[in-house]
Amino acid sequence: MKRELQFKQTxxxxxxxxxxxxxxxxxxxxxxxxxxxxxxxxxxxGKDFEDMVLENCIQDDKAAERVYxxxxxxxxxxxxxxxxLSDEI
Length: 89
Description:
Elements: E1 3-9, E2 13-18, E3 21-27, H1 35-42, E4 52-56, H2 62-88
Parallel strand pairs: 1-4
Antiparallel strand pairs: 1-2, 2-3
């Protein structure tokens, strides 16, 4: 089943939403990326990660674009690694 997520701006930062629920957020103040929270939001508890799409809903914000690009790159690297590991098994 395809997971459709949205990347949106909040009062405190930039967040990823799934079915209207904020599942992961990065603060604008420090742009700290919590790896544990990221894992639980996207991959823990058997969540489907193979068919996941993150839509950028923020326009004309260079900082948001960099954060979005970073998240997309990380998601792609993780997907590649999981695929590689499953092929080895």
